[in-house]
């Protein structure tokens, strides 16, 4: 501060000396009470006003204008360009690996379904609409035990499988699969006289299925011999669980070795509804293991792991630098805002409006900070996945962070396109229409919610698209976009003629209201904003009081070098003489000398 004060002009030095005397302090309190300022003060205020305007003009310049004004290197702009390249390259590599991983685990699950599920066929592997087959389920007691026998036989004859599967044992001996059942503690039904005995407490009972040499395994006999009875009236769920190991050679390449996995397989009999239909499903949770390659496979995963780790570390470092720079820029913008508020309060005796204060908050920086945090977290999880430090599957969590972060990174490119008039029309139109779209959407969502709950309640039991609240919302949203209209009409069940006619009135009303009314109004809101922006380009944009104070930036003045002068020191001295609060003087000192490089973005 001493260096700043020593470089001020004579007028500001006189004001600074006077501000330290008790007499000047009394004069300052008298002015605050509304008395006119001395004549010499107005000259100082005009000088301060010019320098404050110059400071604000520089703050609201784009990076190109700031470069021409002070020749300061745009650090944040360069950081964002490097970040886009690194993050996109990282995402492409991870997306390729994740695609192979997900498809590999899913294909293994299909293989397990053929090996261990009784009644499974290829038609169930295709997601068809409407579904080509009903749910896989058992309906008889004999079918339940036959499904257990089929699964155990497939597990015992694992060598017959084409896939390179082995048991979860170091010597490849077959461990006993575990059979668990979950029953109500008491559940006896006497349907003939409408009576029952019931206790809602759930009891879990597990046994190991052990095969006897030379004998055919029969689950029904084995369960009875083990002293365990299956009471279907109280049975909630039954599971047969075992683990398998396998190795994936497909990933092997010049620098990438094979991958080793363990699959925890669970065959689930779901009887929770107690409706006579016990659904049969298979789940296979993959866990990545550390492979032990033979001596002939010279190339291990060290090269690949080092390269991927270097990329992850570079992404984390560049995102951390972007996070620090943008956070610091937001902080200093808030300091300048407080300084501007004090200036308007002292110089013009009025408060800065809320719209003018919000101009100091850069939403683009906030979005960059959010995507930096997401990418840093995703890169950290990715590094742990590639180092096998996670024992369970964390690919989806990592892809969620990296994908969302990359989405926001590319959204940030719009800011730089906004420096050009042609592309800025789109951004300004969205910004102008955003409040009206929000209010319009609130009204449209209320109507949408009414149709959604009504359709779910009335049509749910008779129409497959309305069976749940989520599917009802998806169906209505598809209808708004004109998708699958005929199928929605045609697959309505005719079990109830009254509800069949209601479905026609319901669907016609919804489609007509949203396609012909709501969407048309929605488009008109955006077009109205677009016409307003085009009119602004012709007649000039409306200016807030802050923009009126700043005025127009003349390109000749920007490139003339006037912003490269050390004017901030004299302005700092004037602030010392005018403002009594040391916080804002210190804040301006931080914003003044040497801080312009942080505002280059």
Q: How does this model look, in words?
A:
This protein is α+β, with helices and mostly antiparallel strands and 601 residues long. Among the domains are: 140-276, no CATH class; 418-539. The chain is 58% helix and 11% strand. The protein has 21 helices and seven strands. The protein has helices spanning 2-6, 10-19, 22-32, 39-59, 63-70, 75-116, 141-156, 219-225, 302-347, 354-358, 363-386, 395-411, 413-417, 421-459, 469-480, 485-490, 497-539, 545-550, 555-559, 567-578, 582-591; strands at residues 137-138, 166-167, 178-190, 195-208, 235-248, 259-270, 278-289. It is extended.
Structural class category: alpha+beta
Whole-angstrom Rg: 36 Å
Pattern of helices and strands: HHHHHHEHEEEHEEEHHHHHHHHHHHHH
Q: Helical proportion? A: 55-70%
Compute the separation of the termini in Å. 27 Å
Shape: extended
Assess the beta-strand content as a share of residues: 5-15%
Q: What is the number of beta strands?
A: 7
- Quick check: average pLDDT? 79
Low-confidence stretches: 1-36, 565-574, 577-581, 587-601
Number of helices: 21
Query: How would a crystallographer describe the biggest sheet?
Result: 7 strands, antiparallel
What is the topology?
Elements: H1 2-6, H2 10-19, H3 22-32, H4 39-59, H5 63-70, H6 75-116, E1 137-138, H7 141-156, E2 166-167, E3 178-190, E4 195-208, H8 219-225, E5 235-248, E6 259-270, E7 278-289, H9 302-347, H10 354-358, H11 363-386, H12 395-411, H13 413-417, H14 421-459, H15 469-480, H16 485-490, H17 497-539, H18 545-550, H19 555-559, H20 567-578, H21 582-591
Antiparallel strand pairs: 1-7, 2-5, 3-4, 3-5, 5-6, 6-7
Helix pairs in contact: 2-20, 4-9, 4-20, 6-9, 6-12, 9-11, 9-21, 11-12, 14-15, 14-17, 20-21
């Amino acid at each position: 501060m001493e260096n700043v004060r020593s470089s001020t002009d004579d007028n500001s030095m006189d004001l600074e000396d006077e501000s330290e005397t008790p007499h000047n302090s009394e004069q300052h309190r008298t002015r605050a009470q509304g008395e006119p300022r001395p004549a010499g003060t107005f000259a100082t205020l005009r000088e301060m006003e010019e320098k404050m305007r110059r400071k604000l003009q520089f703050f609201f310049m784009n990076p190109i204008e700031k470069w021409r004004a002070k020749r300061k290197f745009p650090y944040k702009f360069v950081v964002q360009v490097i970040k886009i390249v690194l993050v996109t390259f990282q995402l492409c590599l991870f997306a390729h690996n994740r695609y192979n991983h997900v498809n590999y685990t899913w294909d293994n699950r299909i293989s397990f379904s053929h090996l261990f599920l009784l009644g499974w066929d290829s038609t169930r592997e295709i997601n068809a609409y409407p579904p080509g087959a009903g749910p896989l389920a058992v309906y008889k007691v004999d079918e339940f035990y036959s499904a257990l026998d089929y699964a155990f036989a497939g597990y015992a004859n694992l060598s017959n499988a084409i896939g390179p599967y082995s048991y979860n044992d170091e010597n490849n001996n077959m461990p006993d699969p575990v059979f668990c059942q979950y029953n109500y503690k008491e559940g006896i039904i006497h349907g003939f006289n409408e009576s029952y005995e019931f206790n809602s407490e759930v009891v879990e009972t597990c046994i190991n299925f052990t095969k006897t040499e030379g004998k055919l395994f029969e689950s029904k006999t084995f369960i009875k011999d083990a002293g365990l009875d299956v009471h279907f009236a109280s049975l909630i769920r039954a599971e047969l669980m075992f683990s398998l190991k396998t190795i994936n050679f497909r990933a092997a390449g010049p620098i990438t070795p094979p991958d080793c996995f363990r699959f925890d397989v669970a065959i689930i009999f779901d009887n929770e509804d107690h409706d006579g239909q016990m659904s049969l499903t298979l789940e296979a949770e993959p866990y990545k293991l550390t492979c032990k390659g033979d001596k002939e496979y010279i190339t291990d995963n060290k090269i690949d792991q080092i390269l991927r780790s270097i990329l992850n570390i570079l992404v984390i470092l560049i995102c951390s630098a972007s996070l620090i720079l943008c956070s610091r820029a937001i902080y200093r913008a808030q300091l300048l805002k407080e300084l501007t508020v004090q200036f308007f309060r002292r110089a013009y005796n009025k408060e800065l409006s809320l719209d003018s204060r919000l101009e100091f908050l850069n939403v683009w920086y906030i979005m960059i900070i959010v995507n930096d945090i997401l990418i840093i977290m995703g890169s950290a999880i990715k590094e742990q996945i590639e180092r096998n430090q996670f024992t369970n599957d964390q690919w989806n969590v990592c892809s969620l962070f990296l994908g969302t972060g990359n989405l926001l990174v590319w959204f940030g490119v719009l800011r730089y396109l906004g420096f050009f008039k042609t592309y800025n029309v789109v951004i300004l139109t969205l910004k102008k229409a955003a409040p009206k779209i929000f209010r319009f959407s609130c009204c449209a969502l209320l109507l949408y919610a009414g149709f959604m709950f009504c359709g779910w309640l009335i049509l749910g039991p008779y129409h497959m698209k309305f069976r749940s609240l989520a599917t009802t919302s998806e169906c209505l949203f598809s209808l708004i976009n004109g998708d699958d209209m005929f199928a929605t009409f045609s697959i309505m069940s005719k079990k109830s003629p009254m509800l069949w006619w209601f479905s026609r009135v319901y669907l016609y009303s919804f489609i007509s209201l949203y396609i012909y009314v709501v969407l048309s109004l929605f488009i008109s809101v955006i077009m109205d904003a677009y016409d307003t922006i085009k009119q602004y380009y012709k007649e000039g944009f409306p200016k807030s009081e802050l923009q009126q104070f700043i005025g127009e930036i003349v390109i000749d003045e920007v490139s003339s070098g006037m912003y490269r002068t050390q004017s901030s020191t004299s302005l700092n001295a004037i602030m010392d003489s005018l403002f009594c609060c040391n916080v804002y003087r210190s804040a301006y000192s931080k914003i003044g000398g040497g801080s312009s490089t942080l505002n280059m973005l």
